[in-house]
């Protein structure tokens, strides 16, 4: 298999066919306490926040970098205009649950979308991971690491050789 045809196959793959099992993903419910979130973020770059395990309705995402806002005191966030949304995300500002600190504007992609569509969205928004959804419910995630693994798997299976 030539690399070009491997890439064409790769680009046309449906995300639903390559995403990891939901059980392997970092997911918490909206009412989970912040310490549970912090424990997950010791080994993961993000945590998805869902309404409940039953409906898996996506509420938001908490990224590793967001922990800075959680740990800082509220006054570190203050601007001349007073309170900001980041102030409310501080543990000392009263945040106690995952939903208090979650970023609500999550970039998503449909499970029927292709790898190419996911890559285009990642490039446009300069992000490395997207929530994969079906009817507003979290069904998986796709990251650059997952896509790299899948491309390498395709190349190995097809026996493609890079031409130098």
Radius of gyration: 19 Å
Tell me the number of helical segments per DSSP (H or I, 4 or more residues long).
7
Q: Sketch the major β-sheet.
A: 3 strands, mixed
Give the fraction of residues assigned to helices: 25-40%
Provide the structure class. alpha/beta
Write down how many β-strands occur, each being a DSSP E stretch of 2 or more residues.
Answer: 6
Beta-sheet strand percentage? 15-25%
Q: How would you sum up the global shape? A: elongated
Spatial order of the strands forming the largest sheet: 1-2-3
Q: Can you tell me the residue ranges where pLDDT is under 50 for at least 5 consecutive residues?
A: none
Looking at how many chains there are and whether they match, the oligomeric state comes to single chain
Overall mean pLDDT stands at: 89
User: How widely separated are the two ends?
Assistant: 16 Å
Helix and strand pattern: HEHEEHHHEHEEH
Can you tell me about this structure?
The protein is of the alpha/beta class. The protein is 35% helix and 18% strand. The protein has 7 helices and 6 strands; from the N terminus they run αβαββαααβαββα. It has helices at residues 3-12, 34-41, 67-71, 85-88, 98-101, 115-125, 144-158; strands at residues 27-29, 46-50, 58-63, 108-110, 129-134, 137-143. Strands 1-2-3 form a 3-stranded mixed beta sheet. Strands 4-5-6 form a 3-stranded mixed beta sheet. α1 (3-12) crosses α7. The protein starts with a helix and ends in a 6-residue tail after the last helix. The model has no long low-confidence stretch (mean pLDDT 89).
């Amino acid at each position: 298999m030539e690399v070009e045809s491997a890439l064409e196959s790769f680009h046309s793959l449906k995300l639903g066919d390559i995403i990891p099992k939901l059980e392997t993903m970092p997911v918490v419910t909206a009412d989970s306490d912040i310490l549970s979130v912090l424990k997950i973020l010791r080994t993961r770059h993000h945590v998805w926040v869902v309404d409940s395990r039953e409906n898996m309705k996506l509420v938001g995402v908490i990224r590793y970098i967001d922990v800075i806002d959680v740990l800082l005191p509220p006054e570190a966030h203050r601007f001349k205009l007073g309170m900001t949304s980041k102030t409310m995300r501080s543990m000392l500002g009263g945040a106690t649950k995952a939903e208090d600190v979650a970023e609500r504007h999550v970039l998503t992609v449909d499970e029927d979308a292709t790898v190419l569509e996911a890559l285009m969205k990642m490039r446009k928004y300069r992000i490395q991971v997207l929530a994969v959804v079906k009817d507003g419910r979290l069904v998986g995630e796709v990251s650059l690491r997952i896509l790299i693994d899948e491309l390498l798997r395709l190349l190995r299976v097809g026996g493609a050789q890079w031409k130098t």
